């Protein structure tokens, strides 16, 4: 992204990767290699969104970061919904096997957090760094495709603060307050923040209710201490709560759904017929949607009434991982997230610094959705005694995730040599429960809580950079990593570990993950670099095999599912150039990469028997080559005008892929040459910003800004049958400041683009379940429509 904005309002302290200060005019300092470096001198492809850009683009979520970053997609489709419950981050086309898996990890001040939703709880971000390519050498687990590091502002010893209020159309609002100052002079300072925002959904369902309502409340406290010139420490804590309504998503159906009288209640939009197979292996013709997804033929509809069936079910603790009082109370989602971390830096000498980081995360969410996704009140229910009279398929999902981490390192920085050595430990565990359906909820049907999954990663890492000449440097970096994965489940005779239950299965994987970099300044303001890096993503288990019936087990094995799934690996080759020109008015960077992805983990769905029971498992069933070019530039044309432009071409070529469900649907067995799903091949951002002083007013300024965000359409699956339309979104913002007061006006999605933001293969649910033996629908995420508003701020 543009590299001309100042990274902060005031210089911050130097220390661990959390703190940074502006470099030369027009530069940003980043911490991609565990030390402060100018973004133009860092031989890594990194995008930095500064505090000024975060504010002017109103970035408050991981989806906002993705929209403003080329080569970055977020997939929020999961289990018949598209919401903020689970958000899968996709960089450079590294689409994870499932939305709960990840190929990119998120950090706050270099400390790992358990999910990207933690971004909502960062109260005062100085910048957001998006690192592309394997970052295992420094950042460890789940940085297979990249890493996202949110860097906090460090409070100064002066009292300061602000109060912000925003009001917009469709009941959009935001209130925000910041306060910082001294506790004991500059030796002990603090910053506290409070943030609350909400909005009414953009889409109206057939019952008159809205889809996409959101509300978030977050608070944070950062305390920084510098009791001596050689000692720095800080503690950061944040808490957030998200409360959302029914998700802004719907289905594009390939089949007509009719009531008992033959009337169409949900219209199919099939435009092709695929030659696939049925459960017996016989050839059949499957109606589907091919090419570019059409616009909606059906107004979004849903069942949302929380009647006695729903209330009794949600009040029942059976099989739940959360207490019902802490869970969702109707259709929608509630999530709570707590994060705590601390860092200590000790300068043993001007060249040698020791750093200790420790963190803790606790996230839980509860989500209740209408899994059929349309108004089914005209369909009779065959669910049996105790069921409601009409067909419906409400479904509950809950998850608790906890982890802690610790890292210790020594950093050395001399005139010609810079190095770091350290060790880290990350121990995380989670437990989920699901349940629902068309039968007697809360009477014979309850939630089903699974066992605990645990992942423990220990690593020893190093990095060394040596300047062979004033213009030529070489870097050798690496991590020796041990991943130990566990699955716990209630099973007679299994050994019990305290607090976790019986151990069902575990695996240990050991890997060395190096990165080599050569960078050369072939001109005073231009750097060329080349690198090669290895990355690994931990393996997983298909534990459901151990409790499957003989028939289902045989079908799962035949589909390629394995109990133990080995880690997936990648080797990334990269060549880039960064620099300045036109008298430092122009900053630019461009990089090309090639990344062979091997032992790819893929999710496999087996639909068993006539009852259409779904069995989920995984296997190392893929091999993909990823390659592309990414570029960004910023030009300060004059003191009043700045242009920004960034773009990415992220290409993929599937070599090997197996998926029984897609073969059953399409008849395709050879996926060679196909492209990765859920990732835009082409993406770009552009902006023009005007600004300057207001004539005749002292201590005043004005600005106007127009942003353009572009993402090409994404495939729904590896068969490349259907894709979404390209999206062009334009946002405008203008404001004026005088003294401590400022006011801004904005319009987002100016052209009211209604194209889908995500897509996922899915099914049409009916009382006979006749359309669940193959994919018969596509779940699509709906965008936020045009929104206008005004924001006011007072700084003191």
From TrEMBL:
Pfam families: Plug, TonB_dep_Rec_b-barrel
Topological type in the membrane: Multi-pass membrane protein
SUPFAM superfamilies the record matches: Porins
Highest taxon listed in the record's lineage: Bacteria
Compositional bias of kind Low complexity: 10-25
InterPro entries in the record: Beta-barrel_TonB (IPR000531), Beta-barrel_TonB_sf (IPR036942), Plug_dom (IPR012910), TonB-dep_rcpt-like (IPR039426)
Annotated TonB-dependent receptor-like beta-barrel domain residues: 327-750
PROSITE patterns: TONB_DEPENDENT_REC_3
Chain intervals for the UniProt region annotation (Disordered): 1-25
Location in or out of the cell: Cell outer membrane
Domain named TonB-dependent receptor plug: residues: 40-147
Keywords linked to the UniProt accession: Cell outer membrane, Ion transport, Iron, Iron transport, Membrane, Receptor, TonB box, Transmembrane, Transmembrane beta strand, Transport
Protein family: Belongs to the TonB-dependent receptor family.
Protein name: TonB-dependent receptor
């Amino acid at each position: 992204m543009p590299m001309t904005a100042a990274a902060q309002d005031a210089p911050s302290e130097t220390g661990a990767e959390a703190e940074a200060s502006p470099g030369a005019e027009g530069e940003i300092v980043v911490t991609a290699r565990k030390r402060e470096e100018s973004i133009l001198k860092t031989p890594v492809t990194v995008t930095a969104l500064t505090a000024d850009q975060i504010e002017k683009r109103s970035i408050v979520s991981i989806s906002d970061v993705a929209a403003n970053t080329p080569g970055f997609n977020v997939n929020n489709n999961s289990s018949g919904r598209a919401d903020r419950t689970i958000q899968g981050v996709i960089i450079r086309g590294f689409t994870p096997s499932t939305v709960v898996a990840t190929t990119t990890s998120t950090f706050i001040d270099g400390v790992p957090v358990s999910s990207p939703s933690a971004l909502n709880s960062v109260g005062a971000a100085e910048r957001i760094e998006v690192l592309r390519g394997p970052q295992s050498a420094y950042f460890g687990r789940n940085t297979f495709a990249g890493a996202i590091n949110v860097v906090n502002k460090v409070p100064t010893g002066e009292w300061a603060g602000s109060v912000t209020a925003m009001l917009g159309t469709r009941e959009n609002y935001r209130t925000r307050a910041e306060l910082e100052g001294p506790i004991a002079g500059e030796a002990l300072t603090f910053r506290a923040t409070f943030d609350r925002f909400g909005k009414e959904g953009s889409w109206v369902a057939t019952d008159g209710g809205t889809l996409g309502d959101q509300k978030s409340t977050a608070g944070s406290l950062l305390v920084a201490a510098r009791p001596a010139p050689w000692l720095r420490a800080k503690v950061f804590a944040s808490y957030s709560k998200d409360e959302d309504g029914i998700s802004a998503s719907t289905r594009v159906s390939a089949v007509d759904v009719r009531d008992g009288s033959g009337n169409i209640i949900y219209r199919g939009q099939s435009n092709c017929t695929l030659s696939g197979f049925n459960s017996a292996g016989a050839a059949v013709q499957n109606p589907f949607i091919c090419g570019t997804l059409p616009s909606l033929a059906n107004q979004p509809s849903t069942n949302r009434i929380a009647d006695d069936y729903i209330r009794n079910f949600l009040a029942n603790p059976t099989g739940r991982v959360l207490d019902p009082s802490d869970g969702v109370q109707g259709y929608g989602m509630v999530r709570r997230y707590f994060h705590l971390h601390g860092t200590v830096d000790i300068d043993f000498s001007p060249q040698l610094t020791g750093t200790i980081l420790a963190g803790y995360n606790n996230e839980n969410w509860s989500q209740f959705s209408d899994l059929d996704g349309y108004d089914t009140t005209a369909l009779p229910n065959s669910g049996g005694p105790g069921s409601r009279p009409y067909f419906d398929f409400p479904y509950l999902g809950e998850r608790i995730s906890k982890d802690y981490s610790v890292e210790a390192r020594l950093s050395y920085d001399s005139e010609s040599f810079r190095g770091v050595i350290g060790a880290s430990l990350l121990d995380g565990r989670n437990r989920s429960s699901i349940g629902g359906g068309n039968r007697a909820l809360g009477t014979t049907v309850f939630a089903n809580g699974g066992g605990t999954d645990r992942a423990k990663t220990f690593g020893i890492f190093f990095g060394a950079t040596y300047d062979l000449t004033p213009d030529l440097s070489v870097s050798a970096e690496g991590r020796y990593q041990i991943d130990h994965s566990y699955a716990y489940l209630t099973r007679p005779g299994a050994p019990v570990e305290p607090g976790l239950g019986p151990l069902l299965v575990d695996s240990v994987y050991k890997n060395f993950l190096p990165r080599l970099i050569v960078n050369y300044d072939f001109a005073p303001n231009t750097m060329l670099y080349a690198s090669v890096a290895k990355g690994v993503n931990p393996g997983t288990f298909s534990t459901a095999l151990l409790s499957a019936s003989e028939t289902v087990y045989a079908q799962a094995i035949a589909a390629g599912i394995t109990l133990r799934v080995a880690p997936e690996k990648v080797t990334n080759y990269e060549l880039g150039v960064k620099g300045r020109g036109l008298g430092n008015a122009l900053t630019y960077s461009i990089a090309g990469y090639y990344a062979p992805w091997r032992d790819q983990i893929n999710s496999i769905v087996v639909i068993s028997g006539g009852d259409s029971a779904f069995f989920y498992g995984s296997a190392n069933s893929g091999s993909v080559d990823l390659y592309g070019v990414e570029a960004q530039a910023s030009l300060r044309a004059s003191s009043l005008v700045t242009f920004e432009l960034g773009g990415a071409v992220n290409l993929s070529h599937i070599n090997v892929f197996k998926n029984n469900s897609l073969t059953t649907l399409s008849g395709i067995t050879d996926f060679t040459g196909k492209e990765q799903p859920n990732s835009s091949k082409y993406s770009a951002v552009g902006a023009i910003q005007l600004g300057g002083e207001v004539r005749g007013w002292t201590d005043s300024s004005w600005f106007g800004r127009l942003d353009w965000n572009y993402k090409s359409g994404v495939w729904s699956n590896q068969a490349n049958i259907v894709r979404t339309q390209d999206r062009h979104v334009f946002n405008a913002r203008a404001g004026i400041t005088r003294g401590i007061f400022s006011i801004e006006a904005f319009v987002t999605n100016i052209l009211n683009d209604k194209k889908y933001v995500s897509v996922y293969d899915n099914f049409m649910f009916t009382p006979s379940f006749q359309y669940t033996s193959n994919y018969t629908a596509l779940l699509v995420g709906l965008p936020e429509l045009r929104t206008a508003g005004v924001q006011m701020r007072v700084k003191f």
